[in-house]
Design brief:
heterodimer, A: mainly beta, 11 strands, 50% strand, B: mainly beta, 7-stranded mixed β-sheet, 4-stranded antiparallel β-sheet
Chain lengths: 107, 120
């Protein structure tokens, strides 16, 4: 199985801050990397697919980058509603695997 | 906009079989990849498996011997069966639609999830 490792595991930031979350795969996965957002008590929602493509309806302050083994999710200007846990997930091969999650809190 | 709704017993006894249904509305059930994912309370996400082409399946090897995913296109439903459950199978179970080809098969549209507790 491909192991996905996120950092940091948690972070706290202020409204308006630029926030970056990183994800590393245990082997190359090309651009087959997705980011999901999960708010407390809710189902996950797809934010970014294939490393850089923003899912329809997702605010443009969210962006993704990377290829190979190292990937980044960036929120350009943090908003209160961005408080959530973020998961990276590889779709290069089955079994699909997720990172352990990054919990983002608003100061 | 496709909508997915999971349903089934919220409590299952150890050693029994967990059975869940995902009802699909607002979109076709054919030609897509359909995933099941679970999340133990307070923990991360685990992919269980998917079905595509109305019958081909792929399962997580960690669960493969106990899992069956099927689809009933006439009812717009997919189902999950997990046999010989233990407390470790207590989780919120999500169904999720993927895309229409292998490279887009992973979860894109998620259901709200349903909590299943394994306890006697």
């Amino acid at each position: 199985d491909i192991q996905m490792t996120q950092s940091p595991s948690s972070l706290s930031a202020s409204v308006g801050d630029r926030v970056t979350i990183t994800c590393r795969a245990s082997q190359t996965i090309s651009n087959h990397l997705n980011w999901h957002q999960q708010k407390a008590g809710e189902a996950p929602e797809l934010l970014i697919y294939d490393a850089t493509n923003v899912q329809s309806g997702v605010p443009l302050r969210f962006s993704g980058s990377g290829s190979g083994t190292d990937f980044t999710l960036t929120i350009s200007s943090l908003q209160p509603e961005d408080s959530a846990t973020y998961y990276c997930q590889q779709s290069y091969s089955t079994p699909y695997t997720f990172g352990q999650g990054t919990t983002l809190k608003i100061k | 906009q496709v909508q997915l709704q999971e349903s089934g017993p919220g409590l299952v006894k150890p050693s029994e079989t967990l059975s869940l249904i995902c009802t699909v509305s607002g979109g076709s059930i054919s030609n897509f990849y359909w995933n099941w994912i679970r999340q133990p309370p307070g923990k991360g996400l685990e992919w269980i498996g998917y079905i595509y082409d109305s019958g081909s399946t792929k399962y997580n090897p960690s669960l493969k011997s106990r899992v069956t995913i099927s689809v009933d296109t006439s009812k717009h439903q997919l189902s999950l069966r997990l046999s010989s459950v233990t407390a470790a199978d207590t989780a919120v179970y999500f169904c999720a639609r993927g895309g229409e080809d292998f490279w887009s098969g992973s979860p894109r549209d998620w259901g709200q999830g349903t909590l299943v507790t394994v306890s006697s």
